[in-house]
Each structure stands twice: as structure tokens, then as C-alpha cells.
Amino acid sequence: xxxxxxxxxxxxxxxxxxxxxxxxxxxxxxxxxxxxxxxxxxxxxxxxxxxxxxxxxxxxxxxxxxxxxxxxxxxxxxxxxxxxxxxxxxxxxxxxxxxxxxxxxxxxxxxxxxxxxxxxxxxxxxxxxxxxxxxxxxxxxxxxxxxxxxxxxxxxxxxxxxxxxxxxxxxxxxxxxxxxxxxx
Length: 184
Known about the structure:
Layout: H1 9-30, H2 32-62, E1 72-74, E2 77-79, H3 97-105, E3 125-128, E4 145-150, E5 161-165, E6 175-179
Antiparallel strand pairs: 1-2, 1-3, 3-4, 4-5, 5-6
């Protein structure tokens, strides 16, 4: 009997095991779920920056930021009470002061962006300082603002909020950055 060339069962099992280890390490390295979350976070940061630029242009034109009615003006709707609106609406409310100011009045944007998920966890949240609050007190104007969003995959897990603000009284200061709280 001639011996036929081929692989032994042990050799085949070793190759299959190595392929399994390689494919699982590639799947861990690529992690499509995390990459998708990071892509949504990048969209969130872009949207917040677009809204911020429109707010700055509005303030330059009118000397104040769009008003606030109630205590929640968000991409899930508006209500008197804390955000988010639950159940969430599909968009900023038709009576939303930021929507009216940036789209209906000034046409600075074609539409106000909404969060890629836009649910009770991930939504855009706008909040100006009222004329009777510091540092606006006595001005009769909405003189400071912040707008933010919760991130799915923040760089620092202790700072899950991306927020833009010109309120120097906030602990994290002004500008656009990842912070641990919307309004601190």
C-alpha cells in the first residue's frame, strides 16, 4: 500500500484552531457595534456644532439667544419639566423657541438636526439663561446658552456629555467639549 499525501487530523485541527483565534481577534479589534456608536457620536458632535454656529449668528443679529419656554427644549419635543420628553416626539416641537428662531424667523438652518437615535437617552437639549438668571440678570435678554447631547462611546466614560456653551460660570468653562454634566 502506498501512502497518499495529505493532512493528518491533528494538522487540520491545528489550522482550524488558529483560524478561529485569528478571526475572533479581528472581530474584537474591529468591533462593528462600537464603530457604529462612534459614527453616531461624530454625527452628534457635528450637529451640535452646526446648531451652535447658528445660535452665535442669531445672537450676533439680535443681541440675545432664542428664548426658552418651560424647562425642556429638545429634539424629543418641548415640555414644562425635565428632559427628556417621554414618550419622545419625532422632532423639535413646532412651538420650540430655538426652532422658531433659527428656522422660521431667520432661516439659518433648513431644519434643526435631531439625534441619530432621538430617544429618552440620546437627544439634543438646548437651554439658554433667562433674563432673570445670573449672569443675564438686569439685561432683559437671554445672554448665555448651552446645547448638549449624551454620547454612546465617549472618549472618557466619566464625561459622557458633549456640550457647547458660552457660559463662563459652568465648571467646565466655555466652548465645545466632553463634560460630565449638561449644566455644571
